[in-house]
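Progress note, project year one: complex with thymidine-5'-diphosphate.
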Amino acid sequence: MTIFERMPIKEIKGYDILPLIKDPAKPETIREATVHHSIRGEFAIRRGKWKLLCSPRSGGWSYPKPNADKEAIASSPLIQLYDMDQDPGEKHNVYKEHPDIVVNFAAESHVDRSIEDPGIFLQTNIIGTSVLMDACRKYGIQRYHQVSTDEVYGDLPLDRPDLFFTEETPIHTSSPYSSSKAAADLLVLAYHRTYGLPVTISRCSNNYGPYHFPEKLIPLMIANALADKPLPVYGEGLNVRDWLYVEDHCKAIDLIIHKGRVGEVYNVGGHNEKQNIEIVKIICKELGKPESLITHVGDRKGHDMRYAIDPTKIHNELGWLPETKFEDGIKKTIQWYLDNREWWETIISGEYQSYYEKMYSNR
Ligand code: TYD
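Model obtained:
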């Protein structure tokens, strides 16, 4: 096994280090763009061939602060960097504590990035899922939960507000991202049927809240508005997303892993549909910024029109309902971004700059 300890942090591109889940049984925050496995006190972040394993060995939850002093992180004894190519057995380290439940939040999740470069999405979202499930089989995990997305159902037309995604809606994906997530879901169900792995799947609508990666709609608009930069709305901005506060999503996962039926899929949605343009206008209003910052730019290729979840099953079976109203959630989220500038400013000053230039300069 090749272990690269104290590798300079600059080798780790494109993501930050986050205390994503303080207690796997009571997850508090999810950042959907981060690839990680949270397993009893250890979590790992993977990008390409590199895997960053963070382990609070000293006891307690002494994670490095998100994007804190990079030198400190790089020299931290809590972090080991594994070369995945040379170390297919790395999971043995991750699993040495013999967890009983594994929740796979791991995903490359940004549709725009998947349009630019599908390969990493297949690697992380599909192969990564099978690697993790193989380890779960080996170690006799009591529950493997797959965090999926409503995007596996494709999209709904804008002129049919009566239609919603149920768990029976056929898989009908649009983007390389959603296709990779759908493939993973099918694998998860196949591992259940073929090997008897005790799985559950949740398919959630768009999350928002703390630690949302700055290249996604809401944090991007907050960051740009604060800097009085143009707010790039794709096309007319009429696309509809069903926004769910991240803590409500976490509570749903918590319920599913403890009370959900094995082999089942649960849709998780906020009944909170909003057009993109509405979201951007709300952010302008909350920050006291003029709507003249809104700039319509070229549309996303294959842009899904509307996502809308029917959460009847999880409500009826597990009693879940979203608790945070959008008006409150968006205020809390904006306040969080105001209070945690260091976190996102560090991110947007790095690789994000070239990403932004590439995605938005000639749009
Ligand atoms: P995003 O946050 O990327 O989530 P998803 O594509 O998974 O729904 O985008 C949300 C919506 O916002 C989507 O319809 C695309 C749109 N969008 C913009 O109009 N401008 C932007 O700069 C971004 C990032 C997204």
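Residues 119-138 form the longest helix (20 residues).
Residues 110-111, 206, 216-217, 220, 232-234, 237, 239, 241, 276, 300 surround thymidine-5'-diphosphate (CB under 6 Å).
No further modelling is planned for this target in the current period.
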